[in-house]
Write a structure and sequence with these properties.
Length: about 300
């Protein structure tokens, strides 16, 4: 094994922190390199905040966050979106300290406070709605587009994976695909949106200020998409999830203070794109979780005209 990487029957395995897909991970983590990059002494504890093997690693180093990415374009995008957002009133995001797109690294200020959790979702509804409104003031130049058709298209791999893992569900999945297509909203305005908005993207500061993190999914999307995403994220195949999410969605609808006729359709799409999570996250009892998730999607789909 070389630096935590070995090959078994042609399959490459890497052992944290020596991620084969993130060469800078080994260089930065070994010997306190990450603390040096973050501008802190080598005695500072390096905390792993997030890790997607071969794709992304996020480290907390004192009051800095070091992000390592396999895709240099994501680094450039992350830096760009943070700088755009820092000029928008009502949005609190970290400051970019330094970055090197060629090496897939950037360092940002660590916002003080604690990450919001699922149990905070309802209490933060007004803050979430306010952030969504503020995001619509972001400079839209060059942002990717997430229109209704592309949102359904993004669900295709999800449906294909679930149908492969559970062939007995293929007919029900096809019925969902058909219903989404027949009820797809007429193209409306697309506004800047977070693109993956959920309660875990919020940070509650010591003074109650709500910060926003993981902003590199910024895109132009239908009005209401972020609100639908926020509510749908609460559904993960557990008993009672849909009731909780429905309650949050209605509270968001009220907090938005404007008509959103497409919100229910967007909610159905956001739920559908979560259908394969029990498989991708290697959840225990993944099959029964998919049964409940699919049932929840069908309940919401049935509400559509």
């Amino acid at each position: 094994m070389d630096q935590g990487v070995e090959t078994i029957d042609g399959v490459v395995l890497s052992w944290y922190p020596f991620d084969a897909g993130l060469p800078m991970a080994a260089e930065l983590v070994a010997g306190g390199g990450a603390t040096s990059l973050a501008g802190r002494s080598t005695g500072t504890v390096v905390e792993r905040l997030a890790w997607v093997p071969r794709r992304r690693l996020v480290l907390g180093v004192g009051d800095r966050v070091v992000k390592l990415d396999a895709d240099p374009e994501r680094v450039a995008l992350g830096v760009d979106t943070l700088r755009r957002l820092r000029s928008v009133p009502g949005i609190v995001v970290p400051e970019v300290i330094d970055h090197d797109a060629a090496d897939g690294v950037f360092v940002q200020q660590r916002l003080p406070g604690r990450g919001a959790e699922r149990t905070d979702a309802m209490a933060l509804v007004d803050d979430a709605a306010q952030i969504v409104r503020a995001l619509q003031g972001v400079d839209p130049a060059g942002l990717p587009t997430l229109d209704s058709a592309s949102l359904v298209e993004a669900c295709e791999p999800v449906m294909a994976l679930v149908a492969f893992a559970r062939p007995d569900l293929a007919d029900r999945i096809e019925a969902i695909r058909t219903k989404l297509g027949s009820t797809m909203p007429i193209a409306g305005p697309l506004l800047p949106a977070h693109g993956d908005f959920n309660v875990s993207q919020l940070l509650i500061g010591p003074d109650g200020t709500i910060g926003l993190v993981d902003t590199d999914t910024l895109a132009l999307a239908p009005v209401g998409f972020d609100l639908a995403s926020y509510a749908a994220n609460l559904v993960a195949g557990r008993k009672g999830d849909l009731d909780d999410a429905d309650g949050v969605l209605e509270a968001l609808r009220s907090a938005a203070g404007e008509p959103m006729p497409d919100l229910d359709w967007l909610y159905a799409v956001c739920l559908l794109r979560r259908l394969d999570r029990p498989i991708r996250r290697y959840k225990r009892r993944w099959s029964s979780r998919i049964d409940r998730l699919l049932h929840d999607v069908e309940v919401v789909i049935a509400r559509l005209a």
